[in-house]
Amino acid sequence: MSTGAGIDYSAWDHIYVSDDEDVTNPWAFLLGGQNTFCSCPPSTSIHYLISVLVLPSASPNWGRADRHLLEARLERMVEFQQRGEDLDNNVLECKRLLEEAQGRLKELEEGRNEGEEDEEREAELKKVQAEVKKLKKDEKSFEKMTEKLRREEKKLPWDVDTISKEGFSKSVLNIKPVTKEETEEEKVEKHKTFVEKYAKEIKHFGMMRRWDDSQKYLSDNTHLVCEETANCLVVICIDFEIDEKHALMEQVAHQAIVVQFILDLGRTLKVDARGCFRQFFSKIKTADKPYVDAFDHELELLKERIRSCAQIRMDSAMKELEGEERQKRLGPGGLDPVAVYESLPKEIQKSFDEKNIEMLQEAISKLDLEEGKYHLSRCIDSGLWVPESGEGDDEEDDEEEDS
């Protein structure tokens, strides 16, 4: 059968319907029962077949037959699966019993080899040997049954449930994962580990001057596009400022602002900063004046903060050094000789400058008794005056007698 349109419909002239799967074919019942082959002649038969296949409601027995065939197929599937599960359980149980029996047999044989022989032990040994023999026979029997079940499974007709099996299953939910906020200790440890690992690369990046060089280096080392790199560059700047290497400080500060601007761009675009650093270089190299002005402004602010931090660190270091020096020069009484000297009257200071003992004694004698004892005691405690044994007491006694 063909039409003038040039399309050949002759393939529909003889439709062959097979029910090789017995009752699994739902059309077998409708087309004449089980084991039926229907060759539809042209003309009227094709219209009936279409009415049955395409319009199931045309057949009054459609629903009942379909349910019957589906239930029969599902029952066979469940029965076959249950047979397989029961057989697997029996095999596992047989292997477990066989291992236990072999363990008991080994213990009994070792005991007999060591000379422990009695009638009860021999009877137990024979019993266990017979049990092991029976279990091995059962194991072989189960293996044959398993092989037979596998052959039956291969011969089963395919249907919509068995024609294929799921290779893997994966579900992906397009939601933002919940990230745990890091504690301060974790942040410090993360920064320390990162700097120890990439200190050389960070310092090399900090010394670059050209935009193209910086862009290429970050392309080759995208792991440097992070907060840890910016923080490390700022620390390097402070160290340079303390060492009075101002030009190097300004150069590294420039690179620190580069990294910071890239990170800010990533936060603005809500993307990973490692994927948008090229946009920053493209924007900064096209001389976008507002953007360049903002960059220069942030750079100047960073330099000021670096100078301030460097000054604070130097002041702290000076105070710490002065404290250590003061601690070293404390006298036997725990007083600072410099502080004590500055608190002495002018005449006593002059006697210490000239190292004149008579002048010191004369200056002290001119003072009130309590004031003289006070200054002399402080001089001894600070180490300015080191009297010989008993000298300090004698001088105090002399002052008391004069009074």
UniProtKB/TrEMBL annotation:
Q: What is its main location?
A: cytoplasm
For region Disordered, the annotated ranges are 383-403
Point to the regions of Acidic residues compositional bias.
Answer: 390-403
The answer to whether keyword Cell wall biogenesis/degradation applies is no
Quote the SUPFAM superfamilies the UniProt record gives: Hsp90 co-chaperone CDC37
What is its subcellular localisation? Cytoplasm
Report the residue ranges that make up the Cdc37 Hsp90 binding domain in this protein.
164-325
One GO CC annotation: cytoplasm
Chain coiled-coil ranges = 91-155
Q: Name one Pfam family in it.
A: CDC37_C
GO BP terms: protein folding; protein stabilization
Family named by the database record: Belongs to the CDC37 family.
Q: Under what name is this protein listed?
A: Hsp90 co-chaperone Cdc37
Species for this entry: Cottoperca gobio
